[in-house]
Amino acid sequence: MAGRKQLIRQKRPDGLIGNYPGDADPTSLEFIARRRRSIAVPPLPDFSHADELIAAVSSYVRLAHPNVVSAFDGAVFPSIRDQKNRITLSTAGDRRVLLDDNTTPRWAMLWSHGYPTTSHPTGWTFAHVWARPKDRQCYTHLANLAMMPEYLASLTDKDGPLGAYLRYHSWIRYGWKPLEEDEPEKPDGYDAISWCYLREEGDPIGFVKSRVEELDNERCKLLRSLM
Please, what's the largest Cα pairwise distance for the chain? Predict the structure, then answer.
């Protein structure tokens, strides 16, 4: 098309080659490019007061039952996150641990509440309240886990607005936080939030142990050597 004079290919101010209509005035092309570049992308919304948003979505989040959390003396499994070397053993501090992806946190949440499935439930995602994937005391601790529809997952990513509410909930409801972290502050509108919990399993420790003993996959074989 450039050969037939139907368009003009000219270097833009940003160094890339731009395509312009063949009948355009060459002297105006730089102005057109600058004008297009001057349009700013809208800034991110201010989530500093997100209590109305959290109140609207909190009923879709599922958290560990308080009695189930208190049944465990710490994390459910001795595992940490290492996607590249998953399903192998390593050492963290003075203890042997399983290197894993998000499977053991998911199993911890489901099995401790009496759900025997090993597969990922359709439409759900499992998020960490505190981002401490290399801490074996935190990675599968039930107070550090939340189950929610996949389309809400981004609310807990990085500095997502749901994170502060979940961290305060873990502290005020379960009395738990990572040892190195300060006590979380109460977010605006927290008292108006209604939380939903998974069903209470009568013997959560026994149920988890039975699943590890019954299953013959490689993860469970390694977990049996650690538990």
Answer: 79
